[in-house]
Amino acid sequence: HFIAFPAVVAHPSPRPVLPEDVVNEAVPGNIRRGEHFTGYLKRFIEYLKTRLREHKACSESPTRFLYDLMQGTTIEQKTLKFFSQRLSSLMRSLELADLTKFSPVAVVCEFATLVATYSKGFQIIMEPHSAVGAGGVRHTALQFCCLDASIALRPIVKGGRYRSVVITSGTLSPLDMYPRMLDFHPCLSERLTMTLVRECVCPQIVTRGNDQAPISSQMEVRDDTSVVRNFGGLLVEMSAVVPDGIICFFTSYSYMEQIVSTWNVMMDNGQSLLSKVLANKLLFIETPDPAESSISLLNYKRACDLGRGAVLLAVARGKLSEGIDFTNHYGRCVILFGIPFVYTKSAVLQARLQFLSDTYKINQREFLTFDAMRTASQCVGRVIRGACVYRKIGCP
User: Fold this and answer.
1) Where are the beta strands (DSSP E) in 112-152?
2) Closest residue by Cα to residue 3 from 195, 147, 171
3) What SS3 class is residue 54?
């Protein structure tokens, strides 16, 4: 799919991305001296600490946050807007050798600048962590969430630099969703259909297991013993007949961990399901740790190169589901264990769904379905990388 539309250019901006008028504006006089700026910064950090000690979930607009900040610390919005720029200037003046020590302070200053610059399309969300950290302290996460994706694209389409912009991808369907979400009007939209009649591609949707029991990843039934057993049986059978590499995508890390743990103790003819998979191929698992996932990917490819064959268990929306191509023997089969719908009880997602509904009239079901299909396409697309290379695609 591709969408073409007339656009204009934006001038390069520093990070964090700020409007042109803010970039060219002079730093306020009350923070030009280093000691004055650090005094304001200390007051701002103390205010954040006070808010985080409340340990309660809340969601508020940047305007409301700035009002409460002004009442509690007398720090004005204009002063806050230049925190990031002033910190960079101060560190350059001090000629500091190791800037990594000041990364946490830089994050706080960037947050201050962004919250003072942008009001529409953003939300401040605070969520207490359920787990207790070191020393019995329960931490609270403060997130400055961008709910409007069009803000990132606006400098490209309305900045004046480009005469035209072409957006092309295999996961743009449905075409009418992106112009609504990104707030632009395409002058040309074209959908190039893909044929699945080639013998080298074999897509299948699996709805029942060998025992004819329905299988599904819906929340109500995905933990049923028959569903988990049939998921494992499907992987055992595929690993026995498909050569080289197999990639399996789960809907989340927690669900993958739960399924793999169950396979390890679920017996079938005296052997666990996991042991049967390991008898056919080596097994590698993606984890939330990027370094560990990179090692798993490297060893997975090595096993395929040596002819041993391997199974890679990964997660939709994880590192391995985007940007990595499993070409040729690295991906003879891809299995999606369920459609990857996003966790709907997330406070950030709820805020975004409300914003899309109020601003662009996109209802919740429409967006969630669109996002799930887009993510599934990303997963499947990891192995469709050649006109003649054979692939099998399965989705229980």
Assistant:
1) 122-128, 140-146
2) 171
3) coil
Q: Which of 323, 318, 284 is nearest to 301 (CA)?
A: 284
User: And the tokens for 336?
Assistant: 């999606």
Q: What are phi and psi of 284, to 5 degrees?
A: -130, 145
Backbone angles phi, psi at 127, to 5 degrees: -130, 120
Given a contact cutoff of 8 angstroms between Cβ atoms, the answer to whether 298 and 322 are in contact is no
Q: What is the C-alpha to C-alpha distance for residues 289 and 253, in angstroms, rounded to an integer?
A: 11
pLDDT in tens, 225-258: 999 999 999 999 999 999 999 999 999 999 999 9
| Secondary structure letter of residue 251 according to DSSP | S
pTM of the full structure:
0.77
Count CB-CB contacts under 10 A for residue 296: 21
One DSSP character per residue, 311-333 reads: EEEEETTSGGGSS----GGG-SE
- CA dist list (Å): 351 to 61, 114, 128, 154, 300: 11, 18, 17, 21, 39
Of 97, 117, 119, nearest to 109 by C-alpha is: 117
* Residue spans of alpha helices (H) in the chain: 20-24, 34-52, 62-73, 77-80, 83-94, 103-117, 150-158, 177-182, 225-241, 253-265, 273-280, 290-305, 347-360, 364-381
Residues 328, 390: Cα–Cα separation, whole Å: 8
Q: What does the alpha-carbon distance between residue 233 and residue 224 come to, in Å, rounded to a whole number?
A: 14
Please tell me whether residue 324 adopts helix, strand or coil conformation.
coil
Decide: 202 and 384 in contact? Cβ < 8 Å.
Answer: no
In this structure, what token pair is assigned to residue 367?
Answer: 């967006």
Q: Which amino acid is at 349?
A: L
In this structure, what token pair is assigned to residue 363? 């209802």
Contacts of 12 (CB under 8 A, 6+ apart): none
- Strand duo 333-336 + 245-250: pairing: parallel
Tokens 């950290």 appear where? Answer: 133
Cα(175)–Cα(177) distance, rounded to whole angstroms? 6
Provide the token pair at 290.
């990027």
CA atoms within 13 A on the CB side of 283: 16
Model pLDDT for residues 203-232, shown as the tens digit of each residue: 888 888 888 888 887 878 888 899 999 999
CA 11 – CA 128 distance, rounded (Å)? 39
